[in-house]
Write a structure and sequence with these properties.
The structure is a homodimer of 273-residue chains. The first copy, chain A, has 273 residues and is an alpha+beta fold. In chain A, 37% of the residues lie in helices and 21% in strands. In chain A, strands 3-10-5-8 form a four-stranded antiparallel sheet. In chain A, strands 4-9-6-7 form a four-stranded antiparallel sheet. In chain A, helix 6 crosses helix 7 (232-244). The longest helix of chain A has 27 residues, at 161-187. Chain A is globular and about 55 Å long. The first copy, chain A, starts with a helix and ends in a 6-residue tail after the last helix. In chain A, 46% of the residues are buried. Chains A and B meet through strand 7, helix 3, helix 4 and helix 6 of A and strand 7, helix 3, helix 4 and helix 6 of B. Chain B binds a DNA duplex (30 and 30 nucleotides) through helix 7.
Chain lengths: 273, 273
DNA sequence: CGGGACGTTGACGGTCGTCAAAATTAGTGG
DNA sequence: CCACTAATTTTGACGACCGTCAACGTCCCG
């Protein structure tokens, strides 16, 4: 069992620390094997994230084999892009630390945040179909990713059935997630959208050992609004309403959920007979 | 070169015909090999849809190998479901004829159309991640699909690289498509949404040999509205506005696009300097 | 031919976008 | 470390867009 409160403190204080791995609190040895000052080799088999990331469901022997899939790691400064719309697709990226947004743009300049990704999640799937990326992936805080060249993934997933299955599941999961966002964008009102958003975020953070009730937003109100199909003012107002109703405490980007059930009721109004 | 007008007539008149293959006009022998009255064997290598469907990019010899992927065909009556939310996932389905919608539902009953699928497109990808489907696939007209058991797909895609690549691309394409829908739902107004919807439909139909300017809607105003995040009245009103503006002719579900550029301008307003 | 599903149109109201201003915070450079 | 500027957030007033409700018209199918 993790000590969620302590971990949240970690989350809050160590945000931009390069040394710590704030998002996952599992006590194992570092998975980094220093080769020399320039090339860094990473081993999935030791990674803190192995239960959440690519290798899920692999046996220890299979796990060792896919260490080869990860070519290297890459650090992304806050505000920098991991990849950009139009760039050649070569690799998928597993997030080790940090927080990303992905966003697409229409030709006339409007853009839409299509997702927020945290440690253990995979980005870059959009690039497979046309060999070019169709969205931007931007780090919302200093981040580090494992670079996984896609041809190596394909090669190895021909031999390791569990990896093949896992790759398929990752892509299917993304499709299902986007289905959920479409439901949100297509049929929910502002309060429902924000409540669903908060519940989703806190649930994913909880799966990584953090608190069920506290979180730090890594994105601006405008980015939340873009994701939810709302304007930033509406996001701000809706936060204020939740505060008035005693459902959450909000101090800038620090959110404490006081009444999870109330949030769930907002998303899924109970029908009374 | 196809005779688009003739084909559109076909499309219109032969909608519910069991014998013809109205959506694709390529003159090849039927791809159906009758085994006996109960079991029907289908060969991708002869299929009209092979340039649009699963086998895209495969060599002739590879094509023959993947004939085994298709277990059988299945006919779906208009209004019937191919699969339903919660059902066990076993197969992907390639649409041979007919037109489908997929929709997800929230717990409190609201539902959202997540897509419309036509001949040559693949449905069922949502089921991979949890071994159960998370949406309904409903036939909007009498339809026929090729049933492709997913374990066979996985098996064969370990051996046929081009098939592996193609499966990945199909899933990636669906992710990219949904990104586009999120942009639409999150940042476009009613007119823009409907214009984008019409352009998308007609473009896909054109790729199948139909007219660039005429189409028959297989879905109700309510289903269009659900897909676009609008109410059916708004869809109807927006159609009427397009008619008033001379952009389209609408007679019930028969739509003729009079000014494609105007539609494109609505989706992507030109900036004047 | 009749009933039901589907589509159209109008009137009105609510939700959320727009514009604006002020408050608070974060980031930068001296 | 502090001052200054930019970025972000909050709040208010107002209006537009679209949803709701209702009535009527049309088409399809049995």
């Amino acid at each position: 069992m993790y000590h969620a409160t302590t971990l949240l403190e970690n989350n809050m204080k160590a945000t931009h620390s390069e040394e710590s791995h704030p998002l996952i609190a599992v006590k194992v040895a570092s998975n980094v094997i220093e080769m020399n000052s320039h090339s860094i080799k990473v081993a999935c088999s030791n990674c803190n994230l192995r239960e959440l990331c690519m290798p899920l469901g692999l046996s220890p022997t299979e796990l060792e084999r896919i260490d080869d899939v990860v070519a290297n790691r890459r650090k992304i400064k806050r505000g920098a892009t991991l990849f950009r719309n139009g760039e050649k697709f070569t690799s998928l990226y597993a997030i080790r630390t940090g927080f990303f947004k992905t966003c697409v743009a229409s030709e006339d300049g409007r853009d839409q945040v299509t997702g927020f990704q945290m440690a253990g999640e995979i980005v870059g799937l959009d690039g497979i179909v046309n060999e070019h990326h169709t969205c931007d992936a931007v780090a919302l805080e200093d981040a580090e990713v494992c670079v996984m060249p896609f041809d190596r993934i394909e090669e190895l997933s021909r031999e390791v059935n569990a990896l093949q299955r896992h790759v398929h599941k990752i892509m299917s999961r993304e499709i299902v997630r986007e289905n959920g966002v479409m439901l949100l964008l297509g049929s929910m009102r502002a309060e429902e959208r924000l409540a669903a958003f908060l519940l989703n975020l806190v649930q994913r953070l909880h799966a990584r050992g953090f608190s069920q009730s506290e979180l730090i937003l890594r994105m601006t109100r405008e980015e939340i609004g873009s994701y939810l199909g709302l304007k930033l003012e509406t996001v701000s107002r809706t936060f204020s309403k939740f505060v008035d109703d005693g459902i959450v405490e909000v101090k800038q980007r620090h959110v404490r959920i006081l009444n999870t059930d109330a949030l769930k009721d907002i998303v899924n109004p109970k029908v009374c007979n």
